[in-house]
Design goal:
Structural class of chain A: mainly alpha
Strand content of chain A: under 5%
Largest sheet of chain A: none
Distance between the termini of chain A: 66 Å
Oligomer: homodimer
Chain lengths: ~200, ~200
DNA sequence: CTCATGAGTTACCGAAGGGTAACCGATCGT
DNA sequence: ACGATCGGTTACCCTTCGGTAACTCATGAG
């Protein structure tokens, strides 16, 4: 399985691609640099020509995948008419991404990264970005702390649903899920609003 | 810091207590058996007199903590009048538990366990139990698959909110959070119901 | 007093794995 | 044709860490 020679850039990208697979399947600690090298059809030192360390490679991966996810959602929500539509499109983009990128989802939210302080911050950054966006849509009379908590809760709502969908293995219709979830979220928020005012 | 001699049972329990701390703080792979032994004021072989392996110790921990969480929730919800009340009490019990057990929360949901297949199943078991309980409360006209997905979403809702609360470090009023969250969940579900029927 | 019980220690093994030094050989510009 | 470049390999080091064999020593029963 010896791969042909590649240019530095191509090899770097290939390593990243392969690493998503390996880390996604087995987690950070369950994957050795040898595993990745082998999967890339190459030997270990090659990895170190492109990345300073295992942690560095993983960081680069989280960054790339996380950025892509956020961009996907951002792109889908820019030209929405109102908050309601923005919410639904945001969820649709998110679930669509999950449906097409099981391994990436596992990488980000499967857990390996959540704990180890070093990477936890990076995952939090993504969560935070999503939550902040959602918090901006919450037109509800709540003190900021509660609003933040609810926003994170809604991010968790999407994450929890996705975990189940990905875990089940079957494919699913992201738009349909998004409709139900955003319906739930939106109506839920209105109810909280009514009770509070 | 040499501890006095303890009976086998007491030592075993102390190890479990100490291990929650260590694993909760640094994760499964970030914690060595030596770390735990040292924190317990004892040497490594003592750990192996009580647990077959590191994995075994961790399993026992997840089991104990998970069972306690589920029991707490179960106890709080048994004598509820209707679904609505059951939901609110369930969330209140959950958030109360989180408020008092930051490290346990991190242990279960901080992520270390989610990935590694061996422990992932155990965490899933807990999630599943919670989701099943919630699914039973969802009196909504949805096909079972969607109902399951929503139930997992609601579990994620609580998890996401908790993650933010625990991460912020400040203390919070679990009952207040529970009121808002269950208000959101309940009204959200009703809305989904209305649209679907 | 003494001896069995069992909690606890010291000192070690072996494997895994991150990381590196030194070398190789295909390719391409001149 | 030739030499510099650079993608790639072999072989290795060294630390960490899970796990264990063999010993020590306090304690309580008789």
């Amino acid at each position: 399985m010896s791969s042909p020679r590649l240019t530095a850039d191509a090899r770097r990208q290939q390593i990243l691609d392969v690493a998503i697979d390996e880390f996604g399947r087995s987690g950070y600690f369950g994957t050795s640099m040898n595993d990745i090298a082998e999967a890339a059809g190459v030997t270990k030192p090659v990895l170190y020509q492109h990345f300073d360390s295992k942690a560095d490679l993983y960081r680069a991966l989280l960054d790339e995948v996380g950025t892509r996810l956020l961009e996907t959602i951002a792109k889908a929500t820019t030209d929405a008419a109102d908050g309601r539509e923005r919410t639904e499109r945001g969820f649709a983009a998110y679930f669509g991404w999950v449906a097409d990128h099981h391994l990436e989802f596992t990488l980000l939210f499967g857990g390996s990264a959540r704990q180890e302080g070093e990477f936890a911050a990076q995952i939090r950054r993504i969560n935070e970005a999503a939550a902040t966006a959602i918090a901006g849509l919450i037109d509800v009379d709540l003190d900021p702390a509660h609003r933040e908590t609810i926003a994170h809760g809604l991010v968790g709502l999407a994450e929890g649903a996705s975990r189940r969908l990905v875990g089940a293995g079957e494919s699913f219709d992201p738009d349909e899920i998004a409709r139900v979830v955003s319906q739930l979220a939106w109506a839920g928020l209105r109810a909280v609003d009514r009770e509070r005012r």
